[in-house]
Amino acid sequence: NAGVTQTPKFQVLKTGQSMTLQCAQDMNHEYMSWYRQDPGMGLRLIHYSVGAGITDQGEVPNGYNVSRSTTEDFPLRLLSAAPSQTSVYFCASRQRPSSAYNEQFFGPGTRLTVL
Amino acid sequence: AQSVTQLDSHVSVSEGTPVLLRCNYSSSYSPSLFWYVQHPNKGLQLLLKYTSAATLVKGINGFEAEFKKSETSFHLTKPSAHMSDAAEYFCVVSEGGSNYKLTFGKGTLLTVNP
User: How confident is the model at residue B98 (pLDDT cuts 50, 70, 90)?
Assistant: First the structure.
């Protein structure tokens, strides 16, 4: 299994540009989520999904959109990039959305810079 | 609402000496607790998790943590630090049940000196 994969690893955008961060998992996990990591802030939840066709907002959703058309894929869209969105983005997945005991697997991250 | 506080943003130890990374949590329900490690420019890896089966939890690479309900703490320890332990460590809480969101602490950077 490849686990959780993310593309691209690095990206530089100009203010106002849009882009999609890709995330895929091959473990048939129901629960997927996106976090952003900023220095001294830990990881903050952006959006999450408990299954195909079901998404919801996390702690910091503004400026981001998600969709979940398949179990495997959970892309994150930046509609109009802003410098405040400069961050490292992590995608994660877990077997079941309703159990807290299942290990959450993280992708390697995407480092995004918005100029 | 759940929250987690990592009491030290940076801990520095010498190789071969004990490691203590402190974590306090707040939860309205019986929590699940985790420690994750992140090496430089890498993703997050699960070190250990508390599932209410035992209060002393053993993880990978010689780390362990003790759940103390009376102190609302879940401190991470290791008897002898190795250079490869240098990384950032995150304490994570989840209230479980229908609340499947994980709340992360702000992280503790562990430096290991030769």
Answer: low
Question: What part of A 7-46 touches B (C-beta under 8 Å)?
Answer: 31, 35, 40-45
Residue of B99, B97, B92, B62 lying closest to B80 (CA atoms):
B62
Cα–Cα distances in Å, from B17 out to B14, B30, B47? 6, 33, 19
- % residues pLDDT > 70 (chain A): 96
B contacts of A39 (beta carbons < 8 Å): none
The sign of the CA dihedral A22, B106, A38, B94 is positive
How far B82 CA lies from chain A's nearest CA (Å)?
A: 24
- Asked whether residue B97 carries a pLDDT value surpassing 70, the answer given is no
| CA-based nearest distance B103→chain A, Å | 8
Per-residue model confidence as pLDDT tens digits over B14-61: 999 999 999 999 987 778 899 999 998 888 999 999 877 788 999 999
Subunit contact A44:B104, Cβ cutoff 8 A? yes
CB contact under 8 A, B43 and A108: yes
CA A93 to chain CA centroid, nearest Å: 10
**Contact (Cβ atoms closer than 8 angstroms) between residue A93 and residue A6:** no
Tokens of A84: 């405040």
Burial class (CB in 10 A: 0-12, 13-18, 19+), B84: exposed
- Rounded-to-10 torsion of CA A22, A25, A29, A30: 20
Residue at A82: amino acid letter: A
